[in-house]
Specification:
- The complex is a heterodimer of chains A (304) and B (602).
- With 304 residues, chain A is α/β, with parallel strands linked by helices.
- Chain A is elongated, with a radius of gyration of 21 Å.
- Chain B is built from 15 helices and 16 strands.
- Classes of the chains: A alpha/beta (304), B alpha+beta (602).
- At the A-B interface, helix 7 and helix 8 of A face helix 1, strand 3 and helix 3 of B.
């Protein structure tokens, strides 16, 4: 953690205004100092460089700096463009910045935070993409279980709507609190062919996820996780966006904005590069035969 | 009770060892107890951890069944007697086992869980949501200490047994060792010193070791040897003193007798204790008492004639030497008195003197007798011739008869004088004393009767013969008898006794002539055998009777002694008894001297 932090500050130093030639100033708002944001930032900067823009970058860390301080500094900097990495950063930008174009990336479900001066790359992997891959891995799956809460109603609705196209019936169950998860799982586990996790922090947290994955192995139902971390922990497969490419994607949008295009003219884009990971050990444990051709398409395979 | 050096050292060593053993045992038990306790705590923590982990999710979802399963599993573990799980509100969800209060230990642990605090789904995806620890309950676990107590008890018993065993073995070994390297050598040294103190300078201590005790023993042996070389033991000195033939008396500074030797006790007849502490005057004769202070002044006295007096009053002439002992401050420390008994020498000297006197008188008498004998014969012859020619009533008859009478007396005197010179060895022959006595007594019977003296004969029969001249023997008896008659003016008893006696390792034939007269005055006694000494009025005695008797006995190799007291005097003559061979040799000598026997002679 300490190492990661120091690396981050090294990057920030290299992006400092005085270290580059005079040019457009990009203020980059980091929601936190985690690696995926760094990768996205890296992709963004690479893309600008490829377009020959000698831009200056001013990084802001919303996790370690007070919003007031960040706001004051932003106002003084007279940025050409603001890049928001992650939902907290986008929320901050939406609240504080109205006169400068904002390009975001690494944000799930960004539609709720739309504004005229804001555009960017969503983190939502299109459901169709996901279901297609799920179907290719589990061609015999017919019924998919989903647990949801009030927070994930919209996602469920999307899921229910999209699943039928892939021959999947969604068996959903609402969970009022995390304490209801075991009972709900117990009830549905024997009815489903696959379990799909929705990104709902009210339901999933480390202990409940652990319980879910343990139950999946006991009751032999594959779990489709939220990211490769879940695959590694025991989910059969998960999807990930390509963070650096998301940054590049956002960079392309920034270039277009610099060239005079208006943010409204640029619709929010989904990630164009999708990675998915597969856990062979889980597959073996669940007695699943993954077609070899399909498995080869996985970006990352655990349990080799 | 007497405790030896080795025992003391061993006891000290054992006490230290015991202290060390106790400390070691205590330390071991304490350490082992700590380890066992730590093990128990570690095990309890492991069990508690497992319960905590197993209960984490069930606690979250209040799954009592799952928690109960874990609790029962835990209760199956050894020593676990009680288990309880509470939720965050302290409601007991599961309780298993019996909650005891005696010898149990309660462990508890808070159950927490990581709670994802994800604000958005993307944080869930990225795994970047901040995690917070949330307390969701508490688990309790009671472990019985019975097992621990038993283990500790076992450890205590084992350690105690090992320490006690080790102590015992060490004590036995050390006591053997101490006795060997200290006790025995020291005992030998002590014994050696005691023997040295007792005067045994020949004793050697045999300690074969190279340590300090060995060196001490060597030094002791060397010292003993040196001491022996330079010291004369008291016993040795005592032996010398006691073996001396001289009389040794040591006086202290107060002139009191401090030491006497065996010769003193033997000679003077006193027991040693009777003399110790007494003044020297106790044994000195009155005549010798002066001069001791003078000797102290002069420092020494050499060969002075002194007289000791024995316990029975006997006078002992001695040659007395004395020397004064002084200490370093020149103070008088004592006086050493050394005396030589010269009684025998004195007697011999006296005898020699007497003998020489006799001899001189004898020679003188013989010479005078020869010269007087012839004129006396002429006087006697002419006196008789003239008397024969006298007519009865002639006035010259009385003077002439007086001349004849006195001439006879002179003739007898001359005859006596001649006896001194005439008695030679050649005149002697083997004869029986009794025969001579009988013959002589028959000659004095008439005088005895006149003097009213009873003659009593006590003649021992079967006496050995002696070499003697019969006439002289008769003369001897007659002279002694006449002396006795003179002593018994008012009558009395004359006893003549012969006997065989043993004296000075040889046999003597003794002749004793005793009277019951007035005795001989002590001042006269030493002189009575001198020639011409007489107590009789002038003209009544010649003073030759007893001296002649003395001379006769002396010429017969015998002795004549006189004892006198108020009730009479006793003369004792002793003649050597002759063996058969001596007599035969003498007879042979006589025959050769006589030549071939003449016809008609006897």
């Amino acid at each position: 953690m300490k190492k990661a932090l120091s690396a981050f500050w090294l990057v920030l130093f290299s992006l400092s205004p005085g270290s580059a030639k005079e040019g457009p100033l990009f203020s980059i708002l980091f929601s936190s100092d985690i690696e995926p944001y760094q990768q996205a930032s890296q992709g963004f900067r690479e893309l600008l460089a490829e377009h020959g823009l000698s831009a200056r970058f001013a990084p802001y860390d919303l996790k370690n700096e007070s919003p007031e301080s960040v706001d004051a500094r932003l106002r003084q900097s007279q940025s050409t463009l603001v890049v928001a990495l992650g939902t907290p950063a986008l929320k901050f930008a939406r609240e504080k910045i109205q006169d400068v174009p904002v390009v975001f990336c690494m944000v799930l479900n960004p539609k709720r935070l739309q504004a005229p001066n804001i555009t960017g790359v969503s983190m939502d992997i299109p459901l169709s993409v996901k279901l297609r891959i799920v179907k290719s891995v589990l061609p015999n799956a017919r019924r998919a279980g989903v647990l949801y809460s009030r927070n994930s109603n919209a996602l469920l609705a999307e899921m229910v709507a999209g699943a039928s196209a892939f021959g999947l019936e969604v068996l959903e169950k609402e969970v009022g609190s995390d304490k209801e998860l075991p009972a709900a799982l117990k009830e549905m586990s024997w009815q489903i062919d696959v379990f799909l996790m929705l990104p709902d922090s009210g339901i999933y947290f480390p202990k409940s996820t652990e319980y879910l994955l343990l139950e999946s192995l006991r009751n032999k139902f594959p779990v489709i996780g939220l990211s490769s971390v879940y695959t590694k922990a025991g989910a059969l497969l998960s999807f990930d966006g390509h963070y650096k490419d998301m940054g590049r994607q956002a960079g392309e949008m920034a270039v277009r904005l610099l060239r005079g295009e208006q943010p409204e003219a640029l619709p929010i884009a989904p990630p164009r590069t999708i990675h998915w990971s597969l856990n062979r050990l889980t597959a073996e444990r669940l007695d699943l035969k993954i077609p070899e051709g399909v498995a080869r398409e996985a970006t990352e395979i655990f349990g080799q | 009770m007497k405790i030896g050096l080795a025992a003391k050292m061993n006891l000290l060593f054992f006490a230290m060892l015991m202290l060390f053993g106790l400390a070691l045992g205590y330390g071991l038990i304490r350490q082992e107890t700590r380890v066992l306790n730590a093990e128990l705590v570690a095990r309890a923590n492991v069990l508690l951890d497992s319960l905590r982990i197993a209960s984490e999710y069930p606690l979250l979802v209040k799954d009592r069944e799952a928690i109960s399963r874990s609790a029962k599993g835990l209760l199956a573990q050894p020593d676990v007697v009680y288990c309880r799980v509470e939720d965050a509100q302290r409601n007991t969800l599961v309780e298993a086992g019996a909650q005891q209060t005696h010898r149990v230990r309660l462990f508890r642990a808070i159950v927490t869980t990581k709670r994802g605090n994800a604000l958005s789904g993307e944080e869930l995806l990225l795994g970047s949501s901040p995690e917070v620890q949330e307390t969701i309950g508490e688990v309790f676990l009671s472990l019985s200490l019975a097992g621990l107590d038993k283990k500790i008890h076992d450890v205590v018993a084992l350690v105690a047994a090992i320490v006690a065993g080790a102590l015992m073995v060490t004590f036995m070994a050390s006591s053997l060792l101490f006795r060997r390297i200290v006790g025995r050598p020291v005992a030998l040294l002590v014994k050696g010193i005691e023997r040295l103190a007792g005067g045994d300078l020949d004793h050697q201590v045999r300690v074969h070791s190279t340590d300090e005790i060995g060196l001490l023993a060597d030094s002791f042996n060397r010292m003993t040897k040196d001491l022996k070389n330079v010291t004369v033991s008291k016993d040795y000195v005592d032996d010398i003193i006691q073996s001396m033939t001289h009389l040794l008396i040591v006086l202290d500074s107060n002139f009191a007798i401090k030491t006497v030797n065996h010769a003193v006790v033997e000679t003077l007849g006193y027991a040693e204790q009777e003399l110790l502490g007494q003044p020297l005057q106790k044994v000195l004769d009155e005549s010798s008492k002066a001069g001791l202070e003078d000797m102290v002044k002069r420092g020494a006295l050499h060969n002075a004639e002194r007289v000791y007096r024995a316990k029975n009053g006997k006078i002992i002439p001695v040659l007395f030497s004395g020397s004064v002992m002084r200490d370093r401050q020149n103070e008088l420390k004592g006086i050493i008195c050394l005396a030589q008994d010269v009684t025998d020498r004195k007697r011999l000297e006296k005898a020699v003197m007497q003998s020489e006197k006799m001899s001189a008188v004898g020679q003188l008498a013989a010479g005078v007798a020869h010269e007087i004998n012839n004129p006396l014969g002429v006087i006697f012859g002419f006196a008789q011739g003239l008397i024969r020619r006298l007519q009865p009533g002639d006035p010259l008859e009385m003077p002439l008869k007086s001349i004849e009478q006195e001439a006879v007396r002179c003739k007898n005197l001359v005859q006596d004088l001649l006896t001194f010179s005439r008695a030679t060895r050649a005149d002697r022959e083997p004869l029986e004393l009794n025969r001579a006595v009988e013959a002589a007594l028959s000659l004095v019977t008439a005088r005895a009767r006149m003097a009213q003296v009873e003659v009593r004969k006590e003649l021992s029969a079967d006496l050995p013969r002696i070499l003697a001249n019969l006439n002289q023997l008769q003369q001897l008896v007659i002279n002694l008898a006449n002396n006795a008659f003179d002593a018994m003016k008012d009558g009395g008893t004359l006893t003549v006794r012969t006997a065989l006696i043993q004296e000075e390792a040889r046999s003597w034939v003794s002749l004793i002539v005793a009277d019951t007269g007035r005795g001989i005055a002590p001042d006269v006694l030493p002189r009575i055998f001198e020639p011409f000494f007489t107590t009789k009025p002038v003209g009544q005695g010649t003073g030759l009777g007893l001296s002649l008797a003395y001379e006769i006995v002396r010429k017969h190799s015998g002795t004549l002694e006189v004892k006198s007291q108020a009730g009479g005097a006793e003369f004792c003559a002793k003649f050597p008894a002759r063996t058969g061979r001596e007599l035969e040799e003498r007879v042979r000598e006589l025959r050769q001297d006589a030549g071939p026997p003449k016809a008609g002679s006897v």
